[in-house]
Design goal:
Layout lengths: L2 E6 L4 H12 L6 E7 L3 E7 L2 H7 L9 E7 L14 E2 L5 E9 L2 H10 L10 H14 L4 H9 L4 E9 L6 E6 L4 E4 L4 E4 L11 E4 L4 E6 L2 E6 L4 E2 L4 E2 L4 H5 L6 H7 L1 H9 L3 E2 L4 E2 L5 H4 L7 E6 L1 H18 L3 E5 H4 L10 E7 L5 H11 L5 E5 L5 H5 L2 E4 L12 H21 L4 H11 L2 H9 L2 H11 L4 E6 L3 H16 L2 E6 L16 E5 L6 H12 L4 E7 L4 H5 L2 E5 L7 H19 L18
Parallel strand pairs: 18-19, 18-20, 20-21, 21-22, 23-24, 23-25, 25-26, 26-27
Antiparallel strand pairs: 1-4, 1-10, 2-3, 2-4, 5-6, 6-7, 7-8, 8-12, 9-10, 9-11, 11-15, 12-13, 13-14, 16-17
Helix pairs in contact: 3-4, 4-5, 8-14, 8-16, 10-14, 10-18, 14-21, 16-21, 17-21, 18-21
Bound molecules: 2-deoxy-2-amino glucitol-6-phosphate.
2-deoxy-2-amino glucitol-6-phosphate binds next to helix 10.
Length: 611
């Protein structure tokens, strides 16, 4: 996600824009830019944080009382000066900023190139401003009508603001799938991705609705749909303070990011999971897809939560595509002189794309094999750049040190990869493939349903907040989920917790069980349900306390468990994306009740760029 801000009124716009971008930097910070309209349209943009832009604009032509600003979280195109927003039309008379993903930008770009347009960036956004100009060029219509017609050609998500030399007293804004807020001042208007840049100037805001556009002048504004239907504005009064607004009204970034998961999971498969065509398309590795048939083994390397995602990736790729997979800690792989075959594929998973151990593992593998993929969340990160190809998770910036939405987005990518590979190899039938992708599309809503059980999970946290130890058990795909649940609890509440394969308990750890040991069991398995039930009974026989995550409507395991959290049923391969949610919430609420610093836990960093 990116940060958008705009101003029209009688004040000097530049300081307002720059302060607004600082407030929005948590939404994206790999490049930033502003466009100011005085006698001419001036665009100032640069790779780096807002601070770099501040330095860059010193002494430049930034006066004027109408302007737009943008701080970027790259989705298409590396973070560099050319790809930074605002983007200009061919004739440099129109500037546009955008938050979202234009899925059909490549088709639109080809058409525009045939009509003589030239492009300076690799972004989807630049295509939109050229499309607006192209429509204006060919029809005698107003700027806002050209914007409206252009948006009707766009597939995907957008929040945009347009500024043009031809309309020095006008801002045009529109949104679909990405947020945009209008601030109503005295003879001045503000636009922003959320209310944080606005609240210090006015508390009267309009949260724009999807497929709505606004035409804003110094002394008036109008709202309509992109179908040209006039809309009545609903003006609200902001009650939240600035800090609360940055966190979207949540107490911590981690909680905000847990609740973002229905949207971030949808953003990860947006443009990649096509139900109408019944296909999966992974642009980042499309050139390699047909070469995958000669791959005999996959090695997945990662650290921490990403390593847990890798373990789930192992199950998915072996189960669906029937290709053997090895999972390696980056820190172990880099030093143990591993056996690497020339027809291996190495996949590195990393939210930050900067983890030193994972990077070192990649460099080792690259000495022996050509095929090295990256699954990263930060576009243009080191791992994204040093791997031959890759798939971005598009989860948006993850600010909380404890990884949540990045993890579920990693699982989305691994499911997409395993399913597409299985389809190419014919290791699953077309019918089964279509059943899977239909169910895949329901995951965001199923995650949303689990989030509703937050109060029940909070009660559990209240009961167990002072325990010293926890066990997390799971079998099959749920074993890595158990590891992830234990890590979440450890890293933010500082309670010792261990994830274990449920069946392994009898080989030693069951000695730990007594009436003081809470045991969280992820018990959503269908194929080995009875085995998980037996493991639970073994724990109960030793007075252990069972907290079971079960499929909705489960009777048997629920009956023998002390506490039960129900989650919506789904295909087994998708279940970790849902069963991890209650574990994230349990860890979060335990940490809050214990007064821990949830977003910046002690001793930890968001990205471990050292050995
Ligand atoms: C997870 O909650 C932790 N913050 C940590 O284990 C993290 O997953 C690990 O450091 C790997 O980071 P990466 O995904 O950015 O490579």
């Amino acid at each position: 996600m990116c940060g958008i801000v705009a101003y029209i009124g009688d004040k000097d716009a530049c300081p307002i824009l720059m302060k607004g971008l600082q407030r929005l930097e948590y939404r994206g910070y790999d490049s930033a830019g502003i466009a100011m309209l005085n006698n001419d349209l001036h665009v100032f943009k640069i790779a780096g944080k807002v601070k770099s832009l501040e330095t860059f604009i010193q002494g430049k032509e930034t006066h004027g009382n109408i302007g737009i600003g943008h701080t970027r979280w790259a989705t298409h195109g590396e973070p560099n000066n050319e790809n930074a927003h605002p983007h200009l039309s061919e004739n440099k008379n129109i500037a546009l900023i955008h938050n979202g993903i234009i899925e059909n930008y490549d088709v639109l770009k080809m058409e525009l190139k045939k009509r003589g347009h030239t492009f300076n960036s690799d972004t989807d956004t630049e295509v939109l401003v050229h499309l607006i100009e192209d429509i204006l060029r060919n029809e005698n219509i107003s700027l806002d009508e050209a914007v409206r017609l252009a948006l009707n050609k766009v597939v995907g998500a957008y929040a945009i603001v347009v500024l043009a030399k031809s309309e020095p007293d006008m801002l045009i804004a529109a949104r679909k799938g990405s947020p945009l807020v209008i601030g109503l001042g005295e003879g001045e208007y503000f636009l922003a991705s959320d209310a944080t840049p606005i609240v210090e100037y006015t508390r009267n805001v309009i949260y724009m609705n999807d497929e709505n556009m606004a035409i804003i002048k110094r002394d008036s504004f109008s709202l309509k749909t992109i179908e040209n239907k006039v809309q009545t504005p609903y003006i609200q009064e902001l009650e939240m303070n600035l800090e609360a607004l940055e966190k979207g009204g949540f107490e911590h970034f981690m909680l905000k990011e847990i609740h973002e998961q229905p949207n971030s999971v949808r953003d990860t498969f947006r443009g990649r999971l096509n139900l109408e065509k019944g296909e999966i398309r992974l642009g980042g590795i499309q050139d390699y897809i047909n070469k995958l048939s000669h791959i005999k083994r996959v090695v997945i390397t990662a650290c921490g939560t990403s390593w847990h995602a890798a373990l789930i990736g192992e199950y998915l790729i072996e189960e669906l595509a029937r290709i053997p997979v090895e999972v390696e800690y980056g820190s172990e792989f880099r030093y143990r002189n591993p056996v690497i075959y020339e027809d291996d594929l190495l996949i590195a998973i990393s939210q930050s794309g900067e983890t030193a151990d994972t990077l070192a593992a990649i460099e080792l593998a690259k000495q022996k094999i050509p095929a090295v993929f990256g699954i990263c969340n930060v576009v243009g990160s080191t791992i994204a750049r040093v791997t031959n190809a890759g798939i971005y998770t598009h989860a948006g910036p993850e600010i909380g040190v404890a990884s949540t939405k990045a993890f579920t987005s990693q699982l989305v990518v691994l499911n997409l990869l395993a399913l597409q590979w299985a389809k190419i190899k014919g290791t699953i039938t077309n019918t089964r493939f279509h059943e899977y992708i239909q169910e895949f599309s329901t995951i965001p809503d199923k995650i949303k349903e689990v989030l509703k059980s937050q109060d029940k999970i909070k009660e559990l946290a209240e009961i167990f907040k002072n325990r010293k130890n926890f066990l997390y058990l799971g079998r099959g795909l749920n074993f890595p989920v158990a590891l992830e649940g234990a890590l979440k609890l450890k890293e933010i509440s500082y309670i010792h917790a261990e994830g274990y394969p449920a069946a392994e308990m009898k080989h030693g750890p069951i000695a730990l069980i007594d009436k003081n040991m809470p045991v969280v069991v992820i018990a959503t398995n269908k194929t080995i349900y009875d085995k998980v039930l037996s493991n639970i009974q073994e724990v109960k026989a030793r007075k252990g306390i069972i907290i079971a995550i079960v499929n909705k409507g489960d009777k048997v395991i629920s009956e023998v468990s002390d506490y039960v959290i129900e989650i919506p049923e789904t295909e087994e391969i998708f279940s970790p994306m849902i069963s991890v949610i209650p574990l994230q919430l349990l860890a979060y609420h335990m940490a809050v009740l214990r007064g821990c610093n949830v977003d910046q836990p002690r001793n930890l960093a968001k990205s471990v760029t050292v050995e």
